[in-house]
Amino acid sequence: MSRPGFLVLPDLPAAAGMLGRAWAGVQVHAHASGRPWLVGRWRRAEVAVGTAGPVRLAVIGDSPVAAVRLGELAARVSSLADVDRVAAALSGAFHLVATVDGAVRIQGTATGLRRVFHCRAGGVPVAADRADLLAGLAESSVDEETLAARMACGLQLPPPLNERPLYAKVSAVPPGDCLVWTDGRAREKPWWRPPAARESLTRGAEGVRAALADSVHLGRGSADLSGGMDSTSLCFLAARENPELLTLRWAEAEAGNDDAEFAARSIAALDRAEHVIIPQHELPAVFAGPDRPMDADEPYAFTRSAARIRYSAETVAAHGSETHFAGHGGDELFSPLPGYLHQLLRRRPVTALRHVRAHAALRRWPLFGTAAGLLRPGTVAGWWREQASHLADPVGSARRPVLGWGVEPLRAQPWLTGDALHLARKALHRTADQARPLGRDPGEHQAMLVLRSAAAQYRLTAGLFADAGVQLRLPFFDDRVVEAVLRVRRHEHADPARYKPLLAEAMRGIVPDVVLGRATKGEFGADLRDGLRRNQAAILRLFEDSALAARGLLDPDRLRAAVLAPQRDYRVVAALEPLIGCEMWLRAADRPAPRRLDALAP
């Protein structure tokens, strides 16, 4: 394995016997008994371990907590239940692992940016932050049902199905739950739930500002400066700690993209920073190198930008950056979907009707569909069953209200085989039988849905930066930041007449007003059209010897016909991107896997 990763082992004699002999380059932390507890590869700055008697606490990832402070917190822990207080006291996005008198607790983040997977290997429970590590230990096969669902639905596939591992013998802990081992037995239990939305916009903005300030600790680092409100906010927060930070942006191909204008104003205000702008002729084209090997953890859906992301990581690394901040997650966090209208209609009907009219006018919602969505939101299980029933239907109008338990309708592409379509439907029905709301109402459910959907992919983007030796930081996915936003009454920061009002108020006085008043968003259609034209032949060559086709899941002839046909819109391109991710993941997963824990060695 070339990327950082770790395993958690129980305090059992059988676990100690799993280690093998080849351990060059692998770090180990022990239980109080002396048996191995944490095993992996990580940068020294990414791990802090605190001890107090039989208690061990480890924070792995993005948190400013020091080992001394963690030791103080460990001294207050007498049982695994006390770890709840530790989790709530820390900022950042991290894994928290505890061992108390032989019992073990492992948890990631509430958004899923940090995941926990587990399995049994040789009769011993094992956990990890990556599914592929466990697949090797458990000698697991590919779960073709889940793979078919990924192929069919791509980026539109929401939680919990998009969080299901693609290895048959590996289980995933849902974000917001923790994994607990006692006496060798494993169980999952909730540790987090969304806070109630009771605060005003003004008070909530203060909490968001404080939470973001706690999450942005730069050191020797860099930050994206696209010109948008999200990344620009992080740049100005980082500059308060280190005015000489490095900023990075891509030049645009689209003549109508006004990102450059807003970025220029920010660059003038950040006059002590070093600014790197990668010109268009230096950037890899969109879809460049589609056949470049990918990670075996899970399919990466942002494949059209993968070459550019790698180039960006290598660029900031060459300038000495060890940590890079990006504004991913800002759109999902600060632009609530209209599901909040259900609660608002019951509590403040006059305000709700004003919002409904504004949404309908801006998004051109049909009157009947809007009324039906508000009066009959349905159930989560019903939504999944409806998607299974209509999976092979044509894609309908984009002008439809998003008021229920999903965001986009799930529609399969014509290049799936009949077997793949059958497997995908089974996966959707299975999810309907198990799915539960992610919140107390449709608005809260939608808020967590979009965050967890995005986190699933940006977690993999962090891996591309890790390949270049850079830690990618995404503060908008940090638990404390998410909590601060969710506490604000949704209708106040979802006002259709304003663009991201909560973030704008939180950054007032920190970010230039001209940026906070921006109401446009960059357009990258020219990049996409040019990249597809230049790399279309390479994409088609990739599927001439397809691993997906070899399993009977993909019809290459139908795929070729769809790619070569005139494109009325970006729907085929949008579906092609995650398909490439599935193909490259399957090639990596089909390679013979190491069966020992020394797979973590470089």
Automatic annotation (TrEMBL):
Q: Which SUPFAM superfamilies match?
A: Adenine nucleotide alpha hydrolases-like (SSF52402)
Spell out the InterPro entries in the cross-references: Asn_synthase, ASN_synthetase/amidase, Rossmann-like_a/b/a_fold
Gene3D superfamilies reported in the protein's UniProt record: HUPs
Is the keyword Metal-binding assigned to this protein?
no
Q: Which UniProt keywords apply?
A: Amino-acid biosynthesis, Asparagine biosynthesis
Q: Which reaction does it catalyse?
A: L-aspartate + L-glutamine + ATP + H2O = L-asparagine + L-glutamate + AMP + diphosphate + H(+)
Q: What is its EC number?
A: 6.3.5.4
Instruction: Name the pathway it acts in.
Output: Amino-acid biosynthesis; L-asparagine biosynthesis; L-asparagine from L-aspartate (L-Gln route): step 1/1
Q: Which residues form the Asparagine synthetase domain?
A: 220-587
Q: Which domain of life is it from?
A: Bacteria
The record's Pfam families line, in alphabetical order, gives: Asn_synthase
Name used for this protein in its record: asparagine synthase (glutamine-hydrolyzing)
